C-alpha cells in the first residue's frame, strides 16, 4: 500500500542489496500462496475441463519452484544467482511450449469447460497474483534473479485477467475456443518472459567471465 513504510523503507533496493529480511519474507509469502493456488487450480481445472485453468495451475507450480530457488540462492554470489535465473528462464520457455502443445491437443478433443467455475477461480487467482506482484514491485530492478521473480508475478496477473476473459467468452459463445485462445496467450507470455530472463542472466554471466579474465 502506498505510503505504508516500515523498518524496511520504501526505496527500491540497490542491485547489491540482496538477501534482506524484506526480500526473504516476500518470497516465503509468495511461495506459500502459489503452492496453495497450484492445488486449487489443478482440482478446479480438471473439474471444469478448462485448459486455461490447468495451464495457470502449472504456472503456479513453476512460480512456487521459482520462489524456492530464489530463497536458496539469495545469500550466494552473483554467479550462482545468475545461473539460477538462467535455469528459471529456460523453465519458463519450456513451460510456455508445453502449454501451447496442450492447447493444440485439447482443440482436437472438443468439449466446453464450465465458465462459472473458471470465473470464480480466475478471480481468486488474480487477487493472489496481484498481491504478490505488488509485494515484489520494489525489487523489480535488482539482479537477474530478482527480475525473474518479478516477471513471473507480473505475467501471472496478466494471465489471470485473460482467464477471466476466457470464462466470459466460453459463457457467451458456448464453445471452448476462448479457453484455448487464452491458454495460447499464456504460453506466449511464458516464452517471452523466459527469454527476457535468459538474456539478462547470460549478460551477467558474461560480465563475470570478462572480469575474471581481466583479473
Brief account:
The chain has 215 residues and is mainly α. It has six helices and no strands.
Summary keywords:
single chain, 215 residues, mainly alpha, Alpha-lytic protease prodomain-like, 80% helix
Morphology call? elongated
> On the 0-100 scale, what is the average pLDDT?
77
The first-to-last residue Cα distance is 45 Å
Rg is 18 Å
Number of helices: 6
Measured as a percent range, the helix fraction is over 70%
Query: Which CATH class applies here?
Result: Mainly Alpha
Helix- and strand-based class? mainly alpha
Strand content: under 5%
The CATH topology turns out to be: Alpha-lytic protease prodomain-like
Largest sheet: none
Domains counted in the coordinates: how many?
1
CATH architecture: Up-down Bundle
Which residue ranges are poorly predicted, with pLDDT under 50 across at least 5 consecutive positions? Answer: 1-17
Number of strands: 0
Order of helices and strands: HHHHHH
